[in-house]
Specification:
heterodimer; A: 95 residues; mainly alpha; Histone, subunit A; two-stranded antiparallel ribbon; 3 helices; B: alpha/beta; eleven-stranded mixed β-sheet; 15 helices; 37% helix
Chain lengths: 95, 480
């Protein structure tokens, strides 16, 4: 499958990635080549195949919904790029 | 002294101290010409070593890892010690907690020297996709050590430590092990906790050891495996029975899948794997050709599913709570888009784009759902083959380690190099790589053994027998 420049820009928007014009051109070619290779999946007859769970056991382990191993506010904020009091700071959302 | 077992024996016999071993390892690591480490935690390592020596003096040594210097791939969280996943996005990130595997190694008394280089977020097969440095193969510094756990492999192969933990999503432990003459084990999916491991593709990721010998790899597996309440995908399966390690391969049924002798395979690699099969026969195993017909679709399946999961997992890097933030963003949207554009490298962006596309409206059925169905067929192939044989033997990589830079401009060519390691992850199986030969240029050739889910024991005992029979040794260049 060949991607158009518009499709690349649309996907970049969905992925929240700002791309340079050079990146758009490169990804258009590289992703098209990868999708061409991946398109051979269409040849597999899988119409009746059920999708398997990730693990061989299939079921995620459940436990009581009890807080354990809390990180704490100070440690949680320690790696934040910008902090306001005990909150993560971001640019103004509403003008 | 090279192996973990030798270091443990020397410590137990009082021939050396952990402080002396650790100081020697740190000295070599600081002079390392191969670029294995991103971060050395000298104060932490020396303090752990002193604590280990104190335990031993008091007769309280806690097991075979007590006092032994190890390294960790830099996508495994270490409390207070910078963990970058090889990405500018996480430059300077100091985790507030340990991964479960980190905590288990610490509880076993291990000395953690530092964090090893990797392809950014584990995405790559040569460690050239690290944002920080390129790692060289200690057996031939003009060549790649493989990836993405190339720094872990180099740290062990260059004898800077006695073992390492890597992660393997599509071959990232086994292929670097093959390229550097080591043993590398990807455990069954669910065998080892992934709590505190930077997520790439969660239905495929596993943590596992890289070491000089099968016995060392088994020792490391034993320390990290088992149920973890903090990882809901970790398994309740009983721990690996290591008493069977030396029980031999008499009566073992080995499958040699014809689809794994792929076009473009290095003839020396193919010959070496066939010779390893003959060696197993001489040890009392039987070998038969088997067929895994959907192997040819593994590359396409993986390079849909792994990017899809990556595009979702890497959504958390938004420049808000941790990680890189762009300077002076004018809006929240610009903060997201520019932080991610600046923080991620080209291969990570490529996979996020690919995964986002394959999950997008109008394409998700043709790509994501289709790939999940083919994954189920790949798994069924193995279920059928494992009714007839106990282990599957193949090459780990179709080629020998390539020269640094050689495949960097062609992502698809790089993806094709993973063709023999991907099915193991897609099927959730345990897979091990060990050296099975030496090519005419002196480089190691890796054989891969795959087993039934949670049957690491059979994989390890087969590898142990093969290793003993082959007696291969590889030494780093420069006489370290």
């Amino acid at each position: 499958m060949k991607l158009t420049e518009q499709q690349v820009l649309h996907v970049a928007k969905l992925a929240r990635l700002a791309l340079t014009p050079d990146e758009v051109a490169t990804f258009k070619n590289q992703l098209s080549a990868i999708l061409d290779a991946v398109d051979e999946l269409a040849r597999v007859d899988s119409a009746t195949t059920l999708v398997a769970p990730a693990g061989s056991e299939g079921l995620a382990l459940l436990r009581q919904d009890v807080v354990q191993g809390e990180v704490g506010t100070e440690a949680a904020l320690a790696n934040a790029p910008q902090v306001a009091g005990t909150s993560f700071a971001i640019p103004k959302v509403l003008e | 002294m090279k192996t973990l077992a030798q270091a443990a024996a020397a410590l137990a016999a009082g021939q050396t101290s952990s402080a002396a071993l650790t100081a020697a390892c740190l000295e070599r690591a600081k002079a390392d010409p191969f670029g294995a480490f991103l971060t050395l935690d000298e104060p932490g390592a020396l303090a752990s070593a002193q604590a280990s020596d104190a335990r031993r003096r008091e007769g309280r040594a806690v097991g075979p890892l007590d006092g032994v210097p190890l390294s960790l791939k830099d996508n495994i969280l270490t409390e207070g010690v910078v963990t970058t996943a090889g990405s500018r996005m996480l430059e300077g990130f100091r985790p507030p907690y340990d991964a479960t595997v980190t905590a288990r190694l610490k509880a076993a008394g291990a000395v953690l020297l530092g964090k090893t280089n990797l392809d950014e977020f584990g995405m790559g097969s040569s460690t050239e996709n690290s944002a920080f440095q390129k790692t060289k193969n200690p057996l031939d510094p003009t060549r790649t050590p493989g990836g993405s756990s190339g720094g872990s492999a180099a740290s062990v192969a260059a004898r800077l430590c006695f073992g390492s933990l890597g992660t393997d999503t599509g071959g990232s432990i086994r292929q670097p092990a093959a390229f550097t003459g080591l043993v590398g084990l990807k455990p069954s999916w669910g065998r080892v906790s992934r709590f505190g491991v930077v997520a790439y593709a969660s239905s495929l990721d596993q943590v596992g050891p890289l070491a000089h010998t099968v016995e060392d790899a088994a020792t490391l597996l034993s320390a990290i495996e088992g149920l973890d309440p903090a990882d809901a995908t970790s398994s309740t399966a009983p721990k690996t029975d290591l008493s069977m390690l030396r029980s031999g391969v008499r009566g073992l049924r080995v499958g040699l899948p014809k689809e794994f002798f792929v076009d473009g395979m290095d003839p020396e690699v193919a010959a070496s794997v066939r010779a390893a099969a003959a060696t197993l026969v001489s040890l009392g195993a039987s070998v038969e050709e088997v067929s895994l017909p959907h192997t040819r679709y593994a590359m396409a399946t993986y390079y849909v599913l792994a990017p899809c999961e990556a595009s979702s997992n890497l959504g958390r890097y938004d420049g808000v709570r941790f990680g890189h933030r762009t300077t002076d963003p004018r809006s929240l949207k610009a903060l997201y888009e520019n932080s991610r554009a600046e923080g991620f490298g080209p291969e990570v962006k490529r996979r996020i784009m690919l995964g986002t596309f394959a999950l997008s409206a109008g394409y998700a059925d043709a790509y994501y759902r289709k790939a999940q169905q083919v994954r189920a067929l790949i798994r069924r192939d193995y279920e059928q083959v494992f009714q007839r044989v106990d282990v599957v033997l193949s090459a780990t990589s179709p080629v020998l380690p390539w020269r640094l830079g050689e495949k960097l401009d062609d992502p698809l060519a790089m993806y094709l190099m993973d063709v023999l390691t991907l099915p193991c992850n897609l099927a959730g199986l345990p897979g091990l790589s060990l050296p099975c030969g030496r090519a005419s240029n002196g480089l190691p050739i890796g054989a891969q053994l795959l087993g039934r889910p949670f049957d690491e024991g059979t994989v390890l005992k087969t590898a142990y027998a093969l290793e003993a029979a082959l007696g291969l040794q590889f030494a780093p260049t420069g006489g370290v």
